[in-house]
Amino acid sequence: METKKVEFGVFLALWNQLQGQDTPVIHFRMGQWLQQAWDRKKTRLLLQAFRSSGKSTIVGLFAAWLIYRQPDLRILVLAADLMLARKMVRNVKRIIERHPLTGALKPERADQWGADRFTVARDLELRDPSMLARGIGANMTGSRADIVICDDVEVPNTCDTAEKRADLRERLAEINYVLVPGGTQLYIGTPHSWYTIYAGQPRREIGEDKPFLDGFARLKIPVLENGNSSWEERFTAEDIERIRRSAGPNKFSSQMMLEPVNIAEGRLDPAAFRRYEADLDYLKEINLLSIGDRKMISASAWWDPAFGSARGDGSVLAVVYTDETGCYWLHRVSYLKSDPSAELDEAAQQCRMAARILKELLVPSVALEINGIGRFLPNILRRELALARVPCAVREITSTRPKDIRIIEAFDTVLAARMLHVHASVYATSFISEVQEWRPGAKGGHDDGLDAVAGALSLEPVRLKRYPGSGRQNWQGGSSVHEAKTDFEV
């Protein structure tokens, strides 16, 4: 078949004219970027645009245009579920049926024109259809494609826990075995998590040393650019403000401004943390422990140990200091992991790690939660502390109150008053993710770091700053001591 020369912008405008619609500037912008990327043989593409911007519609038209230009192309559409993938395939099929430039592509055989797959009239006899729909959880073994379109593969149901995010990344890695050499990957979607696959920076706290879509050419169109609507005809300033109020700050930032946050409104807000980078400074001569210019007057450590499955509870040690003004300084959250190949048993390994941390941070005592693991661990920890010459006492704690209540009571007031300082090293752990995603009563999430920090905070007494001249008010009328002057001797 002869390759047609019609540009995508013309193809798009003709379709909208057939529908009795004008073509918005934002759609021409998306279309121009897609065609330029294709013409320049860019094979790794990410299109991010705000909800209801028509990005899936434009990509569907782009797919129809590509098939119109090269009928032998094979396109695989992946989505979070099969129904969503089918929606794009059905849309492209209707375009090919009705567009004035593509009528000749419809095949004569009805079995080539299915709901989740179709094959146009083409020169090559290929096993794979022209376009195929698949849910992200489907088996793709044996499929081959020249183009893979990932249409909203990240949704709350595929990314609201760490396990689901890891599984999503694993399944998307399978694209490399489906795509032919030199093939094109095109992602379209909006971020639904801080750990989104669309992030422009690596999330080092989950082990990334580069973004998941590293090297992808990107077009990002939020609903507001430089304070102006990206689609003024449809999204006026009043419309955008109404969406902001109804959606809430997290969902608006994620779905309309394309900023990675946790889309689920969490109970705790890490934005209330006060990040710092200063290290501990101990002057032995005057017995002064400080962080930056703040003098520390107490410290608490809480260790919630766990052993066994890597997907079970985490073993977490948290260390919190309190300064003389009553502010809290979360200096360390350590997720202790043992080495299965080591000669030393798992309990002794973790106790040795804990002893090193407690020694480094000059912690005078540590609370050890002994729920569910027996009473043998405190003695092992005391032994390791003694061997390392660490003057740290071990307190055995049995928690009887529900974990959700402990976390709420520990964090609510502290965060509301912005009294919790958090060291930069803590941001490199999964603790921040736990804070973002934690919701009371939710099942299946991780909150081991949260629980350990809550325990450490609960050990610190509430301190009120003393102000000069603020003497105690004796309003109760009780007895008091009075010293009288006398002029006689006894």
Overview of the structural elements:
By secondary structure, this protein is of the alpha/beta class. The protein folds into two domains: 8-255, Rossmann fold, CATH 3.40.50; 270-459, YqgF/RNase H-like domain (Nucleotidyltransferase, domain 5), CATH 3.30.420. 32% of the residues lie in helices and 20% in strands. The chain contains 14 helices and 18 strands. The strands form three sheets. Strands 10, 11, 12, 13, 14, 15, 16, 17 and 18 form a nine-stranded mixed β-sheet that branches. Helix 3 (55-69) packs across helix 4 (82-98). The model is unreliable at 463-479 (pLDDT under 50).
Gist?
The N and C termini lie far apart (126 Å). The chain is 32% helix and 20% strand.
Classify the fold: give the CATH topology of the largest domain.
Rossmann fold
Helix content: 25-40%
Compute the number of helices. 14
Kindly report how far apart the N and C termini lie.
126 Å
Please tell me the overall pLDDT: 88
Proportion of residues in extended strands: 15-25%
Shape: elongated
Q: How many domains make up the 3D coordinates?
A: 2
The name of the CATH architecture of the largest domain is 3-Layer(aba) Sandwich
By secondary-structure content and strand pairing, the structural class works out as: alpha/beta
Query: Can you count the beta strands?
Result: 18
- Largest β-sheet summary: 9 strands, mixed
**Estimated radius of gyration:** 31 Å
CATH class of the largest domain: Alpha Beta
Unreliable residue runs:
463-479
